[in-house]
Amino acid sequence: MTDDLIPIPTLAANAADALPAGGLAAQLATAEREGRPLRIKLGVDPTSADIHLGHCVVLGKLREFQDAGHTAVFIIGDYTARVGDPSQRSKARPSVSAEEIDANAKTYVEQAMRILDPERTEVRFNGEWLGSMKMDDLFGLVSRSTIARLLERDDFAKRYAANEAITMLELLYPLLQGYDSVAIDADVEIGGTDQLYNLLMGRDIMPSYGKPAQTVMTMPILVGTDGTDKMSKSLGNYIGVTDEPADMFGKTMSIPDEAMPEWFRLASGLGHAEREAAITKLTNGELAPNEAKRLLGRSVVARFHGAEAGVAAEQHFNTVFKSKEVPDDIPEIAFGEVPVNEDGRVFLPGMLVEHMGVASGSEARRLLQQGSVRIDGEALDPATLELDPAQLSGVVLQVGKRRFLRIAADA
RNA sequence: GGAGGUGUGCCCGAGUGGCUAAAGGGGGCGGGCUGUAAACCCGCUGGCUAUGCCUACGAUGGUUCGAAUCCAUCCGCCUCCA
Question: How far in angstroms lies nucleotide B35's C1' from the CA of residue A300?
Answer without folding.
Answer: 19
